[in-house]
Specification:
CATH class of the largest domain: Alpha Beta
Strand content: 15-25%
Order of helices and strands: HEEHEHHHHEHEHEEEHEEHHH
Structural class: alpha+beta
Number of strands: 10
Shape: globular
CATH architecture of the largest domain: 2-Layer Sandwich
Number of helices: 12
Strand order of the largest sheet: 5-10-9-8
Helix content: 25-40%
Radius of gyration: 23 Å
Number of domains: 3
Length: 374
């Protein structure tokens, strides 16, 4: 799974080989900074041309984050492709010639790119999408630009001008838009839901107790396991993230609202594989959630052998998404390793409260009028 989509790398390889001029191709999945990314290798055609052709053949989520040109392919002693020996992204094969920023705007923009892409240095002619960028990272970049420059850059401009040099010119011509930070909401019994949560709430009612909007994850754990520490880690995560202590109901007007609980019952489930297959154990773990009962999150461990376990996690989509899952897995690892995590200044319900206020403003009304007209 890449960013929530189930992907078959062989399908992308077949698309690459169908491009005229590509003599050989391979696709692997690499995990950089805790996030799985697609990495493609091609021989015979430049990476920009390969990307351009792929975009006509595949949906956006199947376009590899990195496309590396190769002439020498690593092989095993038996003559097969040695996928483990393929060069990692970020090396010489994956870099344009570095051109340093020439002014303050380009320098600040390069730094923002490095924060979002989690790699550097970034030259002014580097392509955001060649360096591992995608739509979610582009959205994060737009948010950082608004904060740093006080200019609202439309998302489409990142796709149209995907270099530091190109975006710097967009920023210099952009209209000022004061950055507004989301503030923590005052404490109350219930809070509004975001537009995305409202949609999810309605869809779950229509599904009537199904599991179509569950977000399960299975992690293989090898080595010695401390179950007491693991149980404590999940309790820390629940205490840290309000979303893991949230339930949903409707108010007197029939509108969905969310309730944040100070404490929620949580049982870390443990079992032994027994006669089941690993797939059967994972499938049995996925059960419907009752949106009115927090937590909408569960975790458990299945012992396969003394040195191998399956960690099972499941959440409802109304409190999480693909980014949330990656965040939780990363923080789980850090807490299990006894690391301290920085405090969270805002939580998701603060965004929902901010969004409710935004819907009453002129900007929202202008956008609403535009779409109704369209």
């Amino acid at each position: 799974k890449i960013r929530g989509y189930r992907i078959e790398p062989g399908e992308i390889e077949a698309a690459l080989r169908s491009i005229e001029g590509v003599r050989e191709a391979a696709v692997t999945v690499r995990t950089e900074s805790g996030e799985a990314e697609l990495c493609a290798y091609a021989e015979g055609l430049g990476r920009n041309e390969v990307r351009k052709q792929l975009e006509t053949l595949l949906p956006g989520y199947m376009i590899p984050a990195h496309i590396i040109e190769l002439e020498q392919w690593p092989v095993t002693p038996s003559g097969k492709l040695d996928r483990k020996a393929l060069p990692a992204p970020g090396g010489a094969a994956d870099r344009e010639t570095y051109t340093a920023p020439r002014n303050l705007t380009e320098m600040k923009l390069s730094q923002l790119w490095e924060e979002v892409l989690k790699s550097g240095p970034v030259g002014i002619h580097d392509n955001f999408f060649d360096r591992g960028g995608h739509s979610l990272k582009a959205t994060a970049l737009v948010s950082r630009i608004a904060k740093e420059f006080g200019v609202q850059v439309p998302l489409k401009d990142v796709f149209a001008h995907p270099t530091v040099e190109g975006l710097a010119s967009v920023i210099s011509e952009g209209t000022e838009s004061p950055y507004e930070a989301i503030k923590p909401a005052e404490k109350r019994e219930t809070y509004p839901v975001s537009s995305a949560q409202k949609r999810m709430y309605v869809l779950q009612q229509l599904e009537d107790g199904g599991t179509g909007y569950n977000m399960p994850a299975v992690l293989e754990l090898e080595g010695k396991l401390d179950l007491t520490r693991m149980d404590a880690v999940f309790k820390k995560l629940i205490k840290r993230h309000e979303s893991l202590r949230t339930s949903f109901t409707t108010d007197t007007d029939g509108e969905p609202v969310q309730c944040i609980h100070d404490e929620v019952p949580f049982t870390f489930r443990t079992s032994v594989l027994g006669g089941q297959t690993e797939q059967e154990a994972a499938a049995a773990f996925i059960q419907p959630f009752d949106l009115s009962q927090a937590p909408l999150f569960r975790a458990g461990i299945v012992k396969v052998s003394d040195g191998r376990h399956l960690l099972l996690v499941d959440m409802h989509h109304i409190i999480s998404d693909g980014v949330s899952v990656n965040t939780l897995i990363r923080e789980f690892g850090e807490l299990y390793a006894n690391q301290e995590l920085p405090a969270l200044h805002i939580q998701y319900k603060d965004y929902a409260v901010w969004q409710e206020a935004f819907k009453k403003g002129d900007t929202y009304k202008t956008q609403e009028a535009y779409w109704l007209k369209q």
